[in-house]
């Protein structure tokens, strides 16, 4: 009896030892000079590179070696150090992680890093919700984004979530289209990128992760630290809320502790805006070690700037970056079969450039398919004689929808080269969007195979107006509008013609 128990105990011990050895991943981080993903003779190891399992961190030793525990449901990945980059696949997604289909089996994984000269001045493209559902939408992204960005010499691209409209099979065609731009792509997950067929809530990001890698991670680039978050927290069979799960929160805390002495700024990309997150105050507190905090988000199909005040520190600056798809690819199509699809605040669909140097950054909005200086829509009363339908919506105001403006922006107007007059910030709905919806309500688009425009209800954050001057002589009048924000280092100008009968 004693012998049997002893042998059984020995068997348990062996099984436990094997299980323990399999519960870690170990390997080397090395400089892959010939880009073959194998550490060849003479290729140096890299010390002090951060490796994470989605919760904990280790640093590679002086010989580039690491060993870290596996965490169920997570993979193991490195934090890209400045001036190096992991290999990219054909879609230009950065392969900084152990593939999810391998992590359970492997106990050894080496990370190749390729020397990557990174400038102090960075140019990054931020893409709000692409929201592709069918291949038509992928074609639209190719036309509106890929064609325009191919020659823009970008450092990297960040899609800000809601890549799909619940069609997870379309991840690959979308990534192929964006990959053609030629710059590395760092993806963010959105609520429409979750797999709600998964019964386990915390497995709902796995379809995303199989294509794009971890749903939260960090990387260094040049003189900057970047953090990508998954703030989509599943709560039942089909719903979610904005917050970080406990493991991700631990990851963020550990990262900040490790990096706070290396950077005085942090740049965060996530899908749901900070003001909609349940744990907003906790996150702001955690970010206290950083003097400057920038956040780029999507989700709302509107765009605006938000500032979160902090004691004795500059406020957290958040850009809600609108949507490549406008509002869900809604409305009539142009000659290329692309929907007009204004965002809910009347902003034309497009994307942002984030230009950074060591100490400052600048944000520029680009309307897809328009000149770079297209920064506002101007709406004024106009009495048509042929098609009088929209005359019904005329009022006595001139409106300027300034797409990239914030609350500090000063908007002024000049008539016929005269003095500049301040326009008034207006809390209202985009007149341009109201016109489009009015035409739809009259049946103008009924014969078209389109996604219908939602009823306009969103108050724009960047709309100004002024009453049409009394006493203008009959005839044509030149109208100039300028918008200036010293806080954003932003200027925009628009011209139009006002007719008085």
Structure description:
The protein is of the alpha+beta class and 501 residues long. It is built from seven helices and 27 strands. A hairpin with a 2-residue loop joins strand 10 (217-221) and strand 11 (224-228). The longest helix is centred in the N-terminal third of the chain and has 21 residues, at 2-22. The N and C termini lie far apart (110 Å). Mean pLDDT is 93; it is low at 1-21. The chain has helices spanning 2-22, 135-149, 171-179, 206-212, 246-259, 280-286, 431-441; strands spanning 24-31, 50-52, 57-59, 65-69, 77-78, 84-85, 111-115, 122-127, 156-159, 217-221, 224-228, 232-234, 240-242, 265-269, 292-297, 303-310, 313-321, 350-356, 361-367, 376-379, 397-402, 410-415, 421-422, 424-425, 463-467, 475-485, 490-500. Helix 2 runs parallel beside helix 3. It folds into three domains: 2-81 and 93-114, Immunoglobulin-like (Sandwich); 122-367, Purple Acid Phosphatase, chain A, domain 2; 376-500, Immunoglobulin-like (Sandwich), CATH 2.60.40. Helices cover 17% and strands 29% of the residues. This is 3',5'-cyclic AMP phosphodiesterase CpdA. Residues 122-302 form the Calcineurin-like phosphoesterase domain. Pfam families: Metallophos, MetallophosC, MetallophosN. Keywords: Signal.
């Amino acid at each position: 009896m004693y012998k049997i128990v002893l042998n059984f105990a020995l068997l348990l011990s062996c099984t436990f030892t094997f299980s323990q050895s399999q519960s870690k991943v170990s390997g080397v981080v090395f400089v892959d000079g010939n880009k073959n993903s194998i550490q060849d003779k003479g290729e140096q190891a890299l010390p002090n590179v951060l490796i994470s399992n989605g919760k904990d961190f280790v640093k590679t030793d002086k010989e580039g070696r690491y060993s870290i525990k596996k965490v169920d449901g997570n993979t193991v990945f490195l934090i890209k150090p400045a001036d190096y980059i992991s290999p990219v696949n054909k879609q230009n997604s950065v392969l900084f992680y152990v593939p999810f289909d391998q992590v359970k089996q492997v106990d050894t994984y080496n990370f190749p890093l390729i020397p990557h000269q990174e400038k102090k001045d960075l140019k990054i493209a931020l893409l709000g919700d692409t929201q592709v559902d069918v291949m038509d939408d992928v074609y639209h992204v190719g036309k509106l984004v890929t064609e325009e960005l191919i020659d823009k010499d970008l450092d990297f691209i960040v899609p800000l979530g809601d890549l799909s409209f619940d069609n997870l099979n379309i991840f690959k065609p979308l990534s192929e289209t964006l990959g053609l731009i030629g710059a590395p792509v760092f993806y963010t997950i959105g609520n429409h990128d979750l797999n709600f067929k998964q019964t386990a809530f915390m497995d709902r990001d796995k379809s995303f992760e199989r294509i794009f890698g971890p749903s939260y991670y960090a990387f260094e680039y040049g003189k900057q630290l970047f953090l990508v978050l998954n703030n989509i927290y599943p709560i039942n069979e089909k719903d979610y809320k904005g917050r970080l799960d406990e493991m991700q929160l631990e990851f963020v805390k550990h990262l900040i502790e490790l990096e706070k002495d290396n950077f005085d700024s942090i740049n965060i990309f996530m899908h749901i805006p900070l003001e909609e997150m349940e744990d907003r105050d906790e996150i702001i507190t955690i970010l206290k070690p950083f003097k400057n905090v920038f956040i780029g988000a999507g989700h709302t199909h509107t765009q605006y700037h938000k500032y979160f005040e902090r004691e004795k520190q500059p406020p957290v600056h958040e850009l809600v970056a609108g949507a490549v798809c406008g509002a869900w690819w809604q409305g009539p199509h142009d000659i290329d079969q692309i929907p007009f699809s204004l965002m809910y605040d009347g902003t034309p669909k497009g994307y942002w450039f984030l230009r950074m140097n060591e100490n400052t950054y600048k944000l520029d909005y680009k309307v897809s398919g328009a000149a770079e200086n297209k920064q506002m829509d101007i709406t004024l009363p106009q009495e048509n004689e042929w098609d009088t339908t929209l005359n019904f919506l005329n009022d006595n105001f001139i409106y300027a929808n300034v797409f990239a403006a914030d609350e500090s922006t000063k908007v002024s107007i000049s008539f016929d080269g005269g003095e500049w007059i301040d326009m008034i910030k207006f809390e209202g709905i985009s007149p341009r969007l109201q016109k489009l919806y009015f035409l739809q309500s009259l049946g103008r688009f009924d014969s078209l195979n389109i996604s219908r425009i939602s009823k306009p209800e969103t108050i724009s954050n960047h709309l100004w107006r002024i009453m049409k001057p009394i006493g203008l002589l009959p005839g044509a009048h030149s109208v100039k509008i300028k918008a200036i924000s010293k806080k954003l280092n932003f200027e925009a100008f628009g011209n139009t013609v006002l007719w008085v009968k």
